[in-house]
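Please review this pair:
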Amino acid sequence: MTFTKQCFLLLAGAGAMLAQQRFDNTVRDDFFAGFRGDRDALERAMKKCEAVLAANPKDPEAMVWHGAGLFFQSGAAAQHGDFPRSAELYQRGLDQMAGAIALAPDRVGVLIPRAATLLDGSHFIPGENGKALIKIALEDYEKTYRLQASYFATLDGHSRSELLFGLAEGYLRLSDTAKAREWFQKLAAVNDPENGHLKQAQAYLETGSLTGGFHCAGCHVDK
């Protein structure tokens, strides 16, 4: 499993969270590098999570990131033919991310990592299992959108467009074209130079088909 098709972390609106050292700032660069193939970086990121969890096993942000790392490692194990270990890591990753959501169901910094992980991972999981992951991701994304409703328009264009594109993508891949069109319309309304999916949204609304594939339109930097 690779994470090249879509940014792993959107974290739209994370700047509106409490003004404290955000956990994702300490690990995400290493996770990004790890998901691109840097094993040492991934190991560093996982160890940072494990250090936090050793002190507080119920830290939701460390849990969700660590769970995402396990989920990624399950794909790597499958690519090497170790299917028993792949299945173990897959379930552990899902369970740990679900545990994080249960502890912090309204925290954007927990919802977004799981949603992005599952939506991207679903590209490599066929059939109903893949659809189930998409549905979970959509629930997390829609909850994030509701939580950010009062300030969503103030977020940078990239953050808004990536969240909206994730929602549009998910529904399109579930063949719910009515819902997909609804989110593509919202995406097309983001009149901002950082909206890297504007042309895709406009093309879909005009033709009913998506061009350019499913991918992040650029590196996300929180404002």
